[in-house]
Input
Amino acid sequence: MKLLELEIHNFRGVRQIKIEPEAKNFLIWGPNGSGKSTIVDSLDFLLTGDISRMKGKGTKGITIKKHGPYIDSDINDVEVEAQIQLKSVEKPLKIKRSLKNPRKLIYDTNYANVIEPVLELANRGQHILTRREILNYITADSSTRARQIEKLLKLDDVEKTRQSLNKTRSRLKKDYEASEGVQQNSITSIKNLMDINDFSEDLLLEFINKNRRILEGNDIENLNPELVKYGLIPPIKSENFINVNLVKRNIKFLQDQFSTEKIDERLKIAKRLIKLQEKISSNPEISDATNYLRLNQLGLNLIDDSGSCPLCRTSWDREKLEEQINNQINSLNVVKADLQTMEELIGEIISTFTILNVVLDELIPATNNLDLEKTDHKLESWQNLLKPFLDAETYQDGNYTLENIRSLLAPPLLSDYLEEILLILEKVSEEPSSEQNAWDVLTKLEINLKNYNQAKNDFNSASKAYRRAEILLNIFLNSRDKIIGSLFSEIEGRFIELYRELHGSDEAQFNAHLQPKGGGVELEVGFYGRGNHPPHALHSEGHQDSMGICLYLALAERLTEGYIDLIILDDVMMSVDAPHRREICRLLADFFKGRQFFITTHDQTWARQLKTEGVVNGRQMIELYNWTLEHGPYLNSTIDMWDKIEEDLERGDVNSAAFKLRRGSEEFFRDVCNQLGSSVTFKENQRWELGDFLPAALKSYRNLLKSAKVAADSWNNHEELDKLKKVERYSKEVFRRSHAESWAVNINVHYNKWADFSVADFRPVVTVFYDLFRLFQCDKCGGIIHLNKNGMNLEAVRCNCGYFNWNLVKKA
Output
């Protein structure tokens, strides 16, 4: 797609403008506040139905419908329309969008299949590069750069898939860890009942069959809970019978947990956790980052299909909200490691208390049947104190101390209490028979085995799901890195080529590495053979800008696939110095043939360079100036300068005509002097005028024409010599006429004293200046002629298309 015409009505800072790029490069220049950005915004709006500049940080309260119309204009009167040229369509296609219905692009629907891919690419923002976007490519963090590049390269879906797989993996990992904890708790209950340290299903089956034999039952072959007591007859027992052996076993387990060695080991874990939490809480920045990270992680899990923000319920595009939260999480890597360690330590403490709670669940019902007048309910009290510490929030909120943990691991006097229970058991309870003991053990195992089998199945399912998610994510990441890495290698190579070309011998050894890394894109560049570093670590702001332009152009070249040949460079030369701007001009002209560049700038020097280097010519540039509330910007174009001057003269407005001629002539002959290497008198204030440029340009012209004649004569090229003599005769006539009118030029144009001149007096001035302009322009391409040198030696005077060509090299 290329732009042929653009017409704007009552949009942003423009009342009405029509420009005609005609599918060629086009330049709009003028001071800040003259309306350049509005024209860029109008193209953005036309192609996307939105204005990217009115979105993002600092734009709260700004809406396209409220702030899109020109001041005091009705929304119904706001339109942007254009004629575009598509490669596969012979005739120009007209497209239009109104602010009243910004989501609808009006065009001939017969061409929908052709224009839709163009619009899809435009919605990715590929066609506009601004200073802000340069920063996103070069100086941003890796995740921001990744989002920007992924958007341009149409890798959004790849990143969404990665986020989805990663989110699924994280959720399944939590399920896996939770199920693992449940399984370990069930194993602990079985180990305690069997009075063993190491567990295996073979040992459990053997233990079950051993107790079945005591009850004269047959061995079973598998761990089916329904078979544990199958075919067995329960022994007769007295009312309120307590199995002393089982109670003693549980008490023995608890007493073992009260050992100094085990308590010290667990207190070390608690101390590490408390120290880590003190580190975080003592540093407000880390503390805030930690809380913010937790909030974002929670928010990510709470996003529903509506896409509303879980915190404030503001409506979002779900994918953009997830991207925003993930970016925030990635930016908090500094606290992620500490949080991970905290979670692991909390998990270890909770596991310990969970095991104690499981044993208490078995012990408390048995002791409730005992006569414990003075020490009643101590186990229940301990269990009640334990329960809050089975929840991770207790630790995250910091609602505990080291003494809390110590007292829960070994409550005061509880060891004596357990000894008292043992004494009471010996007095009031009969020793169970081996049959009764076997029956009670199998009864508990029946329940425990059900829990174990369920926990085992849940753990196996969760483990398989988690492992599969892990494998799938790794395969996806490896494939993504391989494919995107190959793509980045192509872009990296082109980026390096463009940057070296731009900076010449100064950066002949420049190198760069662009590669996907995790959820981001890492970019490091070489610094004069001193290793690779982030772009903003050592390079100047100007170099960063030129890197951004080169990287963007490499990306744009790779991704458009011939759909959008229009590239908008919106005031991107903020800090690039003049010599490198000239090289950028050459890059645009030589390396991107077939592309249409739409360029805006507030810098007059850059505008002149674009013209003198042949990126645009006089027909492909306009100046915006003198913006007013009533009118918007005024336009000044060298292409229609003569027509506008004539319009002024027809109205009798000599003053306006003289202003346009003086302004246009100063710009034109400034460019001529630059292209021909003319010597202009130095002025410390740099306020040169037409009287400075014109004599220097005429002198250069005469000298170069003379040298061309000498060269042609040395080669006996009589045909060329005759042609040059004709040029000389004509130019002398033009110079003679210009000298004859010099009094008019100096007084009326240069010094703005036009009161004494009529239209008839001023027309000859216009005519001679028109002829003067033509001497320095190619008749075919309209470009200004320029001097070619080889070192200090003059070689030729040529135009950009080569039609104008004076040889200056004499035969040896």
Notes: The chain has 27 helices and 16 strands.
